[in-house]
């Protein structure tokens, strides 16, 4: 898959002699001139065709002149019309639904966003009809182009929670788009909809209102074909390697929050992007799924091997060889328990064991992932891990053992609690551990106590890393700034509101939104003196998504609108 990042070569001083010698005679310069010549700059990022920009999921586009301040303007209370004259640095605004959690992606002059049907763009589906919607807008103007409409499942909130819409981001390549519907389907769409006057698939309906509808190429129903049973919502931002799509099924518990109705159904699978054919499936979390599975996979070549990294609903991270597998099965490379072995799962978020909702991020050939829970479960203890992906087997920090006389007998993982100390069980260091570093608490002021600001809490956001500086927000509202190589904390900032999304790093600035609707802008810096935002702009409504940049434009979606932000609104 072609990366959305295009970097020019940067000549290091250690290889200047070799580089100069390889140049043509008319291009040769002295070693001294080469050393003093300014480094080539990275080319600007153009499209942003999937969650995180590319399959490594690190939200760090390259752009310049991205605004650090703006005013969103007001809206007419009777008509909902945007009052442009009250805005600053806003290019256009597009209405979304009444609740929007999906992150926008940009490709080939179009923007795609998941939301609900609050705007009622399609005549046959007025706003009172509850749908999961994937909406396509024109990149230049914000004009509505077409909508894919997913009707609610008749089973109700156990599988398809009311008003939540489409919560994932699609994957776009050429004139094709793939995404997971709230109904538990993988769908392939033509990015042009019916505006090109062609039907690219076998699906037609008499009620279609022409070019405003999505053009569906193929459908794979996970619930019907695999027997999956998603909990509350099906959501996975698909990624790909070549012709292979990688998908998390969201298989989870039922309305009792105790029973897993489809223990034999896959949690992860790979499929052909052109036909929907299944290459392999895997059910590794199996009977240990804690709640739901809403994480998205990451893909990269690590240690010379293409790997797809999945975060499971059991709190484990799984790496498989990113290929078509063999006999319908993938090759498991390694697995990692994201929780301490003594942690315990308690209903409603009252325990210390977590599942993983965040997407794994790959940076400098390392895997970064944080644990968390459904936002409805509230705040709690969290962990952030940096993992070496070149190791194999069980690479967890600890192993669970039962003491029997003088022997330690390995224990199989259990759903509720891996190690129960009162029963003579212990957690011992794993000699095969792939942990590079672990971040949970730190006594920054050396007072012997751990304060709120010195704690990593549950997170549903991803890490964002540039120049070895890592930013991650937790659900308690703390933005953590760490050294990506060592895990040493630089500083934390309290946003005083829950953070659902992830940070954006662009143009040497960091952008992060929160539930109060504020977007805080920081200087990209590890210096504690830069721990206060240089700007804090209110978007008029909660910001549950993650800011992105494509083609030099900053895009931020709040709960009800998508904003395109540029210098002077041009």
UniProtKB/TrEMBL annotation:
Residues 58-68 have a biased composition (Polar residues). Residues 423-522 form the Pyrrolo-quinoline quinone repeat domain. It comes from the Bacteria. One of its GO terms (molecular function) is protein serine/threonine kinase activity. It holds the Pfam family PQQ_2. Residues 1-21 form the signal peptide. Residues 33-71 are annotated as: Disordered. SUPFAM superfamilies: Quinoprotein alcohol dehydrogenase-like. Residues 33-46 have a biased composition (Basic and acidic residues). Keywords: Kinase, Serine/threonine-protein kinase, Signal, Transferase. PANTHER family: CELL SURFACE PROTEIN, OUTER MEMBRANE PROTEIN ASSEMBLY FACTOR BAMB. This is Serine/threonine protein kinase. It comes from Blastopirellula marina.
